[in-house]
Amino acid sequence: MSISEKPARVGGPPPDEEQVRWPFLQQPRRLIVYMGLLLALTLFLFGMAVALYTPTWRDAGTFAALVLCAACGVEAIRRLGLPAGVSRDLLGAWWFPAILLLPPVYALLLPVPVFMMMQLRSRRALVHRRVFNTIAVALSGFLASVAWHGVRGDGLVAGLAGTSGAHESLTTVSGVLGALLCCSGFTVLNTLFVVLAARMSNGPGESFRPMWDREAFMLDAVELCVGVTVAVLANISLLLLVIAVPPVLLLQRSLLYNQLQAAARTDPKTGLLNASTWEQEAAVEVARARSERGQAAVLILDIDHFKRVNDNHGHLFGDQVLLGVATTIAQQLRQSDLLGRFGGEEFVVLLPGSDTTEAWRAAERLRSQVGDMEIAVGDVPVSITVSVGVAVIGEHGNDLVELLTAADLALYRAKETGRNRVCLPAGRPGTEGKIPEAREGTSPDRVGPRNPRDQIP
What we know:
- This protein is α+β, with helices and mostly antiparallel strands.
- It has 16 helices and seven strands.
- The strands form two sheets. It has a five-stranded mixed β-sheet. The protein has a two-stranded antiparallel sheet with strand order 4-5.
- A hairpin with a 2-residue loop joins strand 2 and strand 3.
């Protein structure tokens, strides 16, 4: 697992010169400290391991063979591409043999040339993200290797230096089980390092989507089994790596293809469905509702004064706001509802089975929850609100295009009448723009507090 390695900024307004030269310094302070501590710990352990290790030609040859195999994997990644966000690349097939066959110092060294090749050959990413991924893999691999050699040797010192003959236990059932356990520890540690970094990079009050679902667990299990199998083959003879590389590359290609296919359907900043995918799936639901004479509603939500957010607090904070709003909306919806990002600061929701009153209540609930979000720049809280346009099938349109047009007109009406409110279309020929009975303290054209907070300080 690797944390998101976003490419260099392309297009848009030019960032400040200082941000271009030192993007790492624009990260949250706690993330900078966290990465600095991990780097210091890695360098300390490397120095200790080098002092205890006695080099051999056999170890150097095995290390060179694994670097060459990993280079083949990097080249395959370059040809297919990497999805945005947290990615899984099956490079563990080469980390695990280094953990099991070589002294721990090589587990620290192997990620360095591999991630350098990825930076030069695959896709240029922010250097501090590449460095962090290198540190996370190296540190996780080193600790797993120390545990493996320590159990097979005479304790911690033997584990740090590397136990000669530890790899020979891979020919036994107990040795293979022990290898699986140690490599599982690598996976757990690496995931924890990535999760902590991702949480620290999120804004205050933001929730983070879990990285370990059922599919991720299966992928980690496959990577674990493949890596240990490669280690067993390499332990018999390094020449057997020749027959191990093609199936590993095929599995890696299949894995990346599936990730790229999923990435093509989603918005990279929020993880929601992108506009084209949402439209395709929403059109099917609307057609089904029409054929079955059912109900459905469309909501369009727009973050109020979002340009002012970017201008006052920067685009990085703006991205945190987008993610926070997306997460808040998703948490308030049913599993059957369809949520997507419609572009810029707009989100769109399809509510199957909802009539006008239900859609209105859902829109008001979303507006209220977003308004209660706690996001701050430093110690200064920033208020975020949304305006919502609602359209219901049969009353404001008979297909998705008509519903989107009506909801967009309702959204424009909400913004024209003060923002931070929910509105329905004013009406269409032959229909009446029905508005549910207003609650106490609201008017039919406005849902929300009589004296709303200023949107942005």
